[in-house]
Amino acid sequence: MTGTGxxxxxxxRGLPAGRLLGVPISVTPSWFVSVAVIAVMAGxxxxxxxxxxxxxxxxxxAVLLAALLGVxxxxxxxxxxxxxxxxxVGVTRVQLFLLGGVSEIDRxxxxxxxxxxxxxxxxxxxxxxxxxxxxxxxxxxxxxxxxLIAIEMAVANGIITVxxxxxALPLDGGRVLRAGIxxxxxxxxxxxxxxxxxxxxxxxxxxxxxVYRLVxxxxxxxxxxxxxxxxALYIAVGARxxxxxxxxxxxxxxxxxxxxxRPVVRLPxxxxxxxxxxxxxxxxxxxLGADGxxxxxxxxPAARSLAARTPxxxxxxxxxxxxxxxxxxxxxxxxxxxxxxxxxxxxxxxLIGQDGQPQGVLRREDLPGATPR
Length: 373
Prior knowledge:
The chain is 54% helix and 16% strand. By secondary structure, it is α/β, with parallel strands linked by helices. The protein has two domains: 2-165, no CATH class; 257-366, CBS-domain, CATH 3.10.580. The longest helix is centred in the first third of the chain and has 32 residues, at 55-86. 42% of the residues are buried.
């Protein structure tokens, strides 16, 4: 099981296992438990498919298969990481654990497209691995060790691909579903709620199947049932965490940060600072470059200080520069805005409306609990 959520990772500490593509990799003790369980279950299967192997040899191959499954999960997660990095998103680490792995990223995606592409990159990698191993299988001698490894990896990566595309949070398919609803509705929260419901449904179905297998009573059925119940719990808890993580802990439930956006007046960046202060009245001053694009937001305290010394100085000298990190979209929900304010130590944030034009300015001082990290 894989995903970009970090709910499970918050509960555990992994053992450092190096870095790949600049991303720290860690492995929890539970991952080694999964290797042992897979080896015990797969040993007899390996022995039956490759009769020339001894018992120790069959279990050695089973351990290798379990380890390669971990490598497949790691490559899946690195697919998320590479795509996230292309959008300028920092990746804290990739962690492998009992049921798969998670990629921990340092911020909420800013657009539906960004979320969909980051979430979809993992399944794309797994699908490519499925095709590669399937093609290799066709070139190998049946019932050989290499043939068995190739076919098992093709099947395993195929399962990873299909399972992660289920429309349920915290799985990748749930994130893609959320992105689609976000794109259509303009509200990420609506997508979160819908995809979380999918998570609860999948969790219930897995739990039901797990109980059914436990009732069977055979050793393999008990193991399968236990894994299904663990997966059901992971998905249900992950879906719940996705919903609760969207609620800003420091803001009242009915607080709309966009309601405190201040009106603006636009002036050229070269406007004398004294005139800019006079023109501002009770509004925020957006300072425009020669191309008409907002370059900065006037900082009144700095502007008054500058005006006292040099009244004719360009207002841009007393402005806070506007960049991607200080832009808030009208479609952003409260959690996204609070997360952004906590990450970015700026005093002013430019609000962009649905038409792509500046609609106002958010001041940090107007937003409760908006202390930067």
